[in-house]
Amino acid sequence: MAELETTPLPAEHTDTQTIKMSDTDSQNVRHHHNSNKEHIDKEEPLAHTDQHPLSVTELLASCPEARQYAVRKIESFADVIAHARILAPMIGIDDRTYQTAQDRIGPLATATTIWAMMQFYDRIKKAGAYFRALTVGSKSEGFDPVRLIRQLAASHDLRTDNCPRTT
């Protein structure tokens, strides 16, 4: 058997802290699993509430003021949101305020709030400030646009029930 000849390593390779791996770095990458599922395609609810979800039909019946400005038929929640984006600047809500509300409470809740505000817009002095307070400001804690729509529907029903009949 031949004896192995040992030669000292150059000084640059004597550092015991540095370890050179022989395989490529890609073999050492670990897979990370995210246990929080994202549901991108699912339609989000109008608001977090114990009440039943609001339907497009109920929204249309509760908010005739907003509905009358629609240039096309409102048939889905996507139509509701698109129409709210048109209504918002008409009542003094700028794009930044709208986007902030949408980020905070969601696109459908933001749109529903705009629709509801159209019902009593004539009684609001500063619609932009009122909208900001409801959706992201001091009054936003506990604000539920579904409850507001249902209150509007109830008050609308009371007004139509008290109208004299002309038959």
UniProtKB/TrEMBL annotation:
Which stretches of sequence are listed as region Disordered?
Answer: 1-46
Q: Where is the composition biased (Basic and acidic residues)?
A: 35-46
A Pfam family this chain is assigned to: RP-C_C
All copies of domain Plasmid replication protein C C-terminal, residue ranges: 56-149
Where does the record place Polar residues bias? Answer: 16-27
InterPro entries on file: RepC_C
The protein, known as? Replication initiation protein RepC
Tell me what organism the protein belongs to.
Lacimonas salitolerans
